[in-house]
Structure prediction request, 156 residues.
Amino acid sequence: MHIRRVAIEPLRLALPRDHRLASMQRIQMVELSEEPFISLRSASALRKLTDDLCEQAGFRPAVVFEGDDLSTVRGFVAAGLGVAILPAPRAGSPESAAGPVLYREIPDGRAEREICVMWSAERRLLPAAEMFREHVIRRATAGRVPALSDNAHAAS
Prediction:
């Protein structure tokens, strides 16, 4: 497999607006050791990153609900059922607007995920797929891929 990193996406703690830690801008992972967590299913890369961040802080997350997609996880957080580690919302996205979910910086660990383009080394890509791959790589190299870290300090 060929792998080309095109972006780094910061992760944030998502918590309900009325959560006891909502007034804090930066929250250490250890402060979440007794919190119920909402996460993607255990096979997802984001779940592994969540588990790793918690493990680095010395605890296992108490996952009380799992979802199949980020909007489901976000909805459970909005309903006050727990906290989650989610990608930082992009400026101008619906998630970045004031709403029932707040996003807070996680200062400890490596709270980010890599966005990559992958393709087979053994198989030739179809022309459309090759054009897409080259387009994404060109835009990333030129700095024209929407910077996933532009809104790294997304607040309420």
In short: Strands lie at 2-16, 36-40, 62-67, 84-87, 101-105, 112-119. The first strand starts at residue 2 and ends at 16. The chain has one domain: 2-115. The chain has three helices and six strands.
